[in-house]
Amino acid sequence: MSIGDTLILIISFAVLTLLVGHFAWGPVTKMMATRADKIDADIDYAENARKEAAELAAKRQAELKNSQADAVKIVNTAKENGEKQRQELVQAAHNEVATLKANAQQDIAQERTDALNSAKNDVAEISLAIATKILGKELKAEDQQALIDDYIKGLGDANGSH
Amino acid sequence: MKESFPYFELFGVKFNPANDIAIIVSAILTFCLLYWLARKPQLRPHGKQNVLEYLIEFTNGIVKGAMPGSEGSQFGLFALVLFVFIFINNQIGLIFQVDVNGDTWFRSATADPVITLGLAMIVLVMSHFFGVAANGFKGYLKGFASPVAFLLPINLIEEFTNFVTLSLRLYGNIYAGEVLLLLIRQLAFSGGPLALVSGFLLEIIWQGFSVFIGSIQAYIFVTLGMVYTSHKVISE
């Protein structure tokens, strides 16, 4: 039995354990612990982020619903307003047209009366002129007696009727 | 590997240089391996750091298997060093065996019962120490008389058999493996090309099998050591 070997074994094993503990075990287990902590923290963070996102989504959904209702209301109001405005415009246009038509008819009647009056005067003058000319050229009353009579009679009818 | 060693004495204590060299070389190899694997650890493990972390998880698993509670965490480093040290010790004699003038200068230190007894002693002394630390001296002594007082002699015998079986199992496996390696080598050089070729092939096969045995024995040694420690540390 070589007892010295046991001493060497114990000493080298103790030194080996110390060195490995300091140079290999320590840093690596520390890193493993850090990683475990980080994973833990990351999972917590992800959980929180997921919850927040869900809350935001719910809020957004509710807001979207509200805004849809708002939009419908706005459109309805606009439609009503538009309809009312259209009615008013049409009414105004009708009134305007009626006024214009009445005015135009009045004007036309006035014009017609004026034109007739002036034409009556013109016809009388022209007839007189024609008669003077005709009478001046050929004074054979016996030839034209019947025509003149007719004419005068026609003129008298035309004047008398108005 | 002949059973003759270049013994020498220092301060009246006998040394076997074959054991000493093998122990020191495997201790240095163990340290270099673990130190190299642990260089620049990163939060995202790459390459060799994965290997070391797998190794640590493996030995931590052995410890957790015996001591599931929090008391196991203090044995993680011990289990890792013990496992890698015994593993390298078992394998080193498969790669190098040096005989000079009929004396063996280098082979697996675990092929010597003195060394395996020493390893078992380290484990068991640690288990007793941590048993006292965990349960107090009274609780530690009570452990010998549990579950009933008349089992005290059997418990004492068990302590002894644990010590012997733990060490001799490792010794027997490694020693037998190396003796067989030597025998196959002698067969290979017994003359004739047929013997050389068949001996060469057999040597390869047996070396591969011995690597397997050495790994299993390192695992068993650490596992049983942790089981014995758990009996001391965990109070029923």
Automatic annotation (TrEMBL), chain A:
GO cellular component, one term: endomembrane system
Alphabetical list of InterPro entries matching this protein: ATP_synth_B-like_membr_sf (IPR028987), ATP_synth_b/b'su_bac/chlpt (IPR002146), ATP_synth_F0_bsu_bac (IPR005864), ATP_synthase_B_chain (IPR050059)
Pfam families: ATP-synt_B (PF00430)
Transmembrane intervals: 6-25
Signal sequence coordinates: none
Membrane found in the keyword field: yes
Keyword Transmembrane included in the entry's annotation: yes
Entry's localization field: Cell membrane; Endomembrane system
GO molecular function, one term: proton-transporting ATPase activity, rotational mechanism
Principal place of residence: membrane
Topology term for the membrane: Single-pass membrane protein
Record keywords: ATP synthesis, Cell membrane, CF(0), Hydrogen ion transport, Ion transport, Membrane, Transmembrane, Transmembrane helix, Transport
PANTHER family: ATP SYNTHASE SUBUNIT B, ATP SYNTHASE SUBUNIT B', CHLOROPLASTIC
Job description of the protein: Component of the F(0) channel, it forms part of the peripheral stalk, linking F(1) to F(0).
Record note on quaternary structure: F-type ATPases have 2 components, F(1) - the catalytic core - and F(0) - the membrane proton channel. F(1) has five subunits: alpha(3), beta(3), gamma(1), delta(1), epsilon(1). F(0) has three main subunits: a(1), b(2) and c(10-14). The alpha and beta chains form an alternating ring which encloses part of the gamma chain. F(1) is attached to F(0) by a central stalk formed by the gamma and epsilon chains, while a peripheral stalk is formed by the delta and b chains.
Similarity remark: Belongs to the ATPase B chain family.
Name of the protein this chain belongs to: ATP synthase subunit b
Annotated source species: Lacticaseibacillus nasuensis JCM 17158
